[in-house]
Predict the structure of Carbonic anhydrase.
Amino acid sequence: MKTSTYILASLLALLFLLGAKSVNAQEVEDEREFDYAKESEKGPRKWGELKKEWEACKDGKLQSPIDMSNERVRVISKPEKRIYKPFNATVRNRGHDISLRWNGDAGSILINGTEYPLRQAHWHSPSEHTINGRRYAMELHLVHQTSDLNVKNRIAVTGVFYKTGKPDKFLSKLMTNISSMVDQKDEDRNVGIINPKDIKMKSQRYYRYMGSLTVPPCTEGVIWTINTKVKTVSRDQLKLLREAVHDYAEDNARPLQPKHSRDIYLYGPGDTSD
């Protein structure tokens, strides 16, 4: 009798452990809300179906990223005004990317008379946008947002392309901190004073169009500015950015989206409007 009771208790304990393991595995699986795998149930083609507030990912007509094709570009002469300054910043592993967030006033960008304060920057590899079909090794996004509720388009993002070559000096300053948070989602590291000017993204020409965020909820009405000057990043830097995030985001570039007859503008000194 004691033997039978012992066996039954052992079986119950084993079933409990297996059940607990299953629940934990499910919780880990549910940790991410979306991913980049093409055939995944949480991949880019499914984003708009995962949550009602993400429907723009599927139904939106102004989605990003897109290809900048010269035959659709309207050339306009209009300088861009960017006023950045150093401020304390934090690096964060968001699981799907590595982001750099300034904890105060790091300056702003001026677009059509509206000032858009710089909020954060993050990296995508490979690039999300393309130029005449060419995709680059990496794309940096600098996200700006105004708190003025009277402004219709409150988010402005600047994109910077990188090809493999010499190490990026700006990213080099963050490498040690990024290395310490490999595959550790929601980890933060204070990196001290960071000057956005050190990105050195001055370009004589840049594209601009109206698009969206490239991750859920794919909010539209985002003013995109894409620099034509291509910077360099080392293979080791690219490798670290990919290793630091979760496996499902090592290639964290959303596929190109339909243009839907949108205007694309090329700004540059000395150019005139069509």
